[in-house]
């Protein structure tokens, strides 16, 4: 979508979207209104069972979709747990709940089970909401809706401003939400995050319907709601930033030992692993293979501020890796279950590389025609898998079956199958 198209779409949405806050209407394009206060003020934080029971009753009696958001303390605490949950529903107002004081919100989740939940970037919040008993059966993701509708900027602030004409203050998005008590400006920010979420949902629904994409969105939302919890990542230490520098298996073992030691300490202290030891320090120690604490202390990642006891525990990890027999050293790469990296295709299978190039070009052109990102039209991994092992006999039915087997939704199968058949057939000729 071009800038002119986005402006026109935003203007149309401001005209046709949901009801604005009670304190005034949205302004003309180019003059957004700052949204400074929740319409009923900042609600008290619910931190006891009696208050939670009142919220459950109020939201069960409310009407229409419920806006849901969660704040985490990424970069400060271990894991991705929720430290504040915000909700808003017609007839119930806004609620702010402390999930540390009220760790079981399953009663609230059950009360809202048959209600459509409105979230922004749902896949980010659903894992931490699931941990406290809140699991939607129906949802509307305003970020994903914005992508499907062709908006190039789909952050919540950009969407609220472009679609509804209001400016949200976003200065507290990266604060330490485990802080107690939470400062009033942070609570105001948190309440405003759900203030217009249902209004945004209504406006985007109308825009998707206008573009003929609403059913596509419904299929995407249903897939997110039905997705099982993610499996724990295998060998998470391999995601250490800077791993591309580590070439030898003994060095990989040092990364693994330091990463696992750091993770145990971070979990015990409930702090972000990066606050215990940086990724850069782990990689530096792996490359240097220090012989003793003195050599370790000389590395910039460990520095003069680290105490002798800390240095000794990190050196012990290095020593364990250095003492491992060859058979116990990690392999250079993880076992690959799918196609190899595309950069290797030209050498391994030139015909597959040609298929992938043609398919990527065709999918890119279709995505541009539909004004949406390629990855939302069809995942790059799905395209790679179909191109690496195309069905025997390239037909519409066989390609469609392959797409379904890789998790493509019906709308994606319908749109992508013809262009993949053409691309794959051209290379087979």
TrEMBL record:
Q: Name one Pfam family in it.
A: HRDC
Q: InterPro entries per the record? A: 3'-5'_exonuclease_dom, Exo_C, HRDC-like_sf, HRDC_dom, HRDC_dom_sf, RNase_D-like, RNaseH-like_sf, RNaseH_sf
Q: Which domain of life is it from?
A: Bacteria
Q: Give GO terms: molecular function aspect only.
A: 3'-5' exonuclease activity; nucleic acid binding; nucleotide binding
Q: Which GO terms describe its biological process?
A: nucleobase-containing compound metabolic process
Region Disordered, residue ranges: 1-40, 326-347
Q: Where is the composition biased (Polar residues)?
A: 1-15
Q: Where is the HRDC domain?
A: 248-328
Entry-linked Gene3D superfamilies? HRDC domain, Ribonuclease H-like superfamily/Ribonuclease H
Give the protein's recorded name: Ribonuclease D
